[in-house]
Amino acid sequence: MTANEAALATLERQIEMAESIHRMELQRLDQMIEDGRKPLEIALDHYVAAINIENSVAQLNQTADRYVIVSERVETWLTELETIRTTMDQPVTETLGGNTTLLSINAGIAAVTGAVQALGGSPSGLAAGIAANAAA
After folding, report:
1. Residue 58: left if φ>0, alpha if ψ -120 to 50, beta else—which one?
2. Count of domains in the chain?
3. How many CA atoms lie within 13 A of 116 on its CB side?
């Protein structure tokens, strides 16, 4: 074996050794990446879950605030409707006297309409008959 051949053989062994070391180092780095990926994925999932919980709580608070606003509006509307009903009941009671209110008139109309329907008539026929008698 000549000196050049021996040097070439030595260089080839060194290349093989370097490639082997390179493969082992890549495997070690791949394993480090894989080992680091698991805690990272777990941490990200917890982070995403924490963000989702935080967003859910914020949305719940917004919904509660909206509920309070709507409840206040409904209370205001109910008060206004009660005022309107009371205002409309006064002239009815003053005109018809006694305990007559819009609610009692409405109940009376419902009772008469029910009786007409039970006898086979229709509310429109009843209204037409009342109109004819009023015109006469």
Report:
1. alpha
2. 2
3. 16
Give the pLDDT confidence of 20-71 residue by residue, as tens digits.
999 999 998 888 888 887 777 777 677 666 777 788 888 888 988 898 898 9
**Containing structural domain, residue 88:** 3-98
Same domain? For 91 and 136 the reply is no
Residue 112's CB is within 10 A of a number of other CB atoms, namely 13
Instruction: For the chain, give the longest Cα–Cα distance.
Output: 142
Please identify which residue in the block is written with the tokens 């917004």.
62
Comparing CA positions, the residue from 120, 98, 123, 129 lying closest to residue 109 is 123
Whether pTM > 0.70 for this model: the answer is no
